[in-house]
Design a protein that fits this description.
With 282 residues, this protein is α/β, with parallel strands linked by helices. It is built from 13 helices and 9 strands.
């Protein structure tokens, strides 16, 4: 089966239609999937309904009919609440795929909830922003049983460019994803400081970005974020509050294994300050 298509006979569900989830669900609908969606704020279901998705009144209703249910929630608390609701009426033998970025303990806890309800659980946090989700270019960092991974590979191929099974438990996925978030959060923080200092001392920012792009520091993230900073375009792609949440989880993980993470801590403080300035949703 070619990438970008999925078996239409399989019943799919999607829980959580925020800035990321809505685009991921839209990809599934565009691929011809039979998709039932739910969101806590029901108005966010309207665009998916117009595109051909079915709308459910609860997470439990979605899980009761879906062979595979995807969830994309904002934080551990929401991920737990939705997994609990879905487990109450989970279709026997169904697979529950949580694409939320959460800590390892939350992933393991939700896996137990789903497995005790008779289902399979796969942790599959994503790397990428809403533009990547809209283009089907997300990266899925998965953890769980290989059977669960293989059961949803077609759908992951529709929504993403690559998917890795990092290990047999949700913890493997959680830890791997947080490593990526450390790099992204600290790199963007460093770039913002560099651009601000350059402006302050009269260095042309466009020239600076060109130099960075041609140097060993050149990479797609620096190029994309530098362009947005230069334009003063600060609309949300991956919001400040989500990046700060991920850095907080990464810092907690570093504390658990007693590895100093001063650069992560400094970056985390930058994002906390941005939230204090009212920029949480930027």
């Amino acid at each position: 089966r070619r990438r970008g298509t999925s078996s239409p006979a399989m019943q799919l569900g999607f829980l959580g239609l925020g800035i990321m989830g809505a685009r991921m669900a839209e990809r599934l609908v565009q691929a011809g999937c039979t998709l039932r969606v739910w969101n806590r704020s029901a108005d966010k279901c309207a665009p998916l309904a117009a595109a051909g998705a079915l709308v459910a009144s609860s997470a439990a209703e979605v899980a009761s009919s879906a062979d595979v249910t995807f969830a994309m929630l904002s934080d551990p608390r929401a991920a737990c609440a939705v997994a609990d609701a879905a487990a109450k009426s989970l279709k026997p033998g169904a697979t529950y795929v949580d694409c939320s970025t959460v800590d390892a303990a939350t992933g393991e806890r939700n896996a137990r909830v789903i497995e005790e309800a008779g289902g399979r659980f796969l942790a599959a946090p994503v790397s990428g922003g809403w533009r990547d989700a809209a283009k089907g270019e997300l990266l899925f960092i998965c953890g769980g049983e290989e059977k669960a991974f293989e059961a949803v590979k077609e759908q992951l191929d529709v929504m993403g460019a690559r998917a890795w099974l990092t290990g047999p438990t949700p913890s493997h996925a959680a830890h791997s994803k947080l490593m990526l978030q450390i790099m992204m959060g600290t790199m963007i923080g460093s770039l913002a400081e560099t651009m601000a200092i350059a402006k302050g001392v009269g260095v042309d920012q466009a020239t600076l970005l060109d130099m960075l792009g041609q140097s060993a520091m050149g990479n797609p993230l620096i190029k994309a974020k530098g362009k947005l900073m230069l334009e003063g375009s600060f609309g949300p792609n991956f919001q400040v509050y989500l990046q700060q949440k991920d850095l907080r989880l990464a810092q907690q993980l570093a504390d658990e294994v007693e590895i100093p993470a001063p650069i992560t801590a400094a970056a985390n403080n930058q994002y906390i300050r941005a939230k204090q300035l009212g920029l949480a949703d930027k």
